[in-house]
Amino acid sequence: MKFxxxxxxxxxxxxxxxxxxxxxxxxxxxxxxxxxxxxxALTGACAIDAVGVPYPDETHEICxxxxxxxxxxxxxxxYDNDPSAPVRPEQGLLLMRKKLGLFANVRPTFxxxxxIDNSPLKRERIEGTDLVFLRELTGGIYFGEKGRxxxxxxxxxxxxYNRSEVQRLAKKGFELAMTRTKKLCCVDKAxxxxxxxxxxxxxxxxxxxxxxxxxxxxxxxxxxxxLVQWPNSYDVLITENLFGDILTDEASVISGxxxxxxxxxxxxxxxxxxxxxGSYPQATGLNIANPLATVLSAAxxxxxxxxxxxxxxxIRAVVNKSLEQGIVTEDLVAKGSKAYKTSEVGxxxxxxx
Length: 353
Known about the structure:
EC number: 1.1.1.85
Strand content: 15-25%
Cofactor: Mn(2+); Mg(2+)
Family: Belongs to the isocitrate and isopropylmalate dehydrogenases family. LeuB type 1 subfamily.
Largest sheet: 10 strands, mixed
Structural class: alpha/beta
Distance between the termini: 19 Å
CATH topology of the largest domain: Isopropylmalate Dehydrogenase
Enzyme class: oxidoreductase
Strand order of the largest sheet: 2-1-3-12-11-4-5-10-8-9
Oligomer: single chain
GO molecular function, one term: 3-isopropylmalate dehydrogenase activity
Number of strands: 12
Number of domains: 2
């Protein structure tokens, strides 16, 4: 098979972790007789520096023509520390989601047997955790009307959803639940927010079409609590943009490191695969960043975008092998053990495929 993949390395450690995912993907392609054409493109702070905008039209065209997008990270301290900056890297991320129609963010959270004690939570609370969040990505408060009034003394952000936005996200949640344990949790704040009441009534109306799926409805604050108490009680969770942003970052630390969790953003035109961590500017150029989340995002890409489950399983297997044998970067290294460089971990994965 032949694939064209848009390669958006982005900022900070993005280029470093993307490089290792490319090496592993190329090794898998060679092993299984596939051909990958990589098409690099700018986004984020590096795009602002180069052309003045965080998501250039040229980048969008490359993404639209690609079979999938592999994405690193965006963000830079010079924008983080300047609230008045007129153009920001994050604007590029939101624009990319909107223009590519990436309405569903798929964020799995699972544990690795060899790292179970790295988690800040007790072993008995997290063993067996294997859950997936589906976060709505193109609506809600991030895309609603916003501004200032009263001479700048009052600020507002408006949360807006329409029924069709909820339906298309919930449909993916129901479909995913059917392939797993047939449990679905709708996360909202329906006791307070009108948008959440729309979410709840819409999902309730869809239940009849999926009679095998057991659906629960929970308030976002209760879910935030239960994620650190009994995360293994959840399977598939669906929620709106802001709630999903917060809860998925909370869930990410269950495994023991944000450098381990992959994600996908799927939608109308193409799908994008990325690690859940940020650009980690403090580590830029030091060759110490953990590349495994990006490598596992590539595994999601092979399985979900291309339908190549065996190739994806081969990547996951070699990642598990590297963790068991301690071939890891400094964020995961055991006391007294060697910390491997980002590129060394990638080289080891390629050599062991």
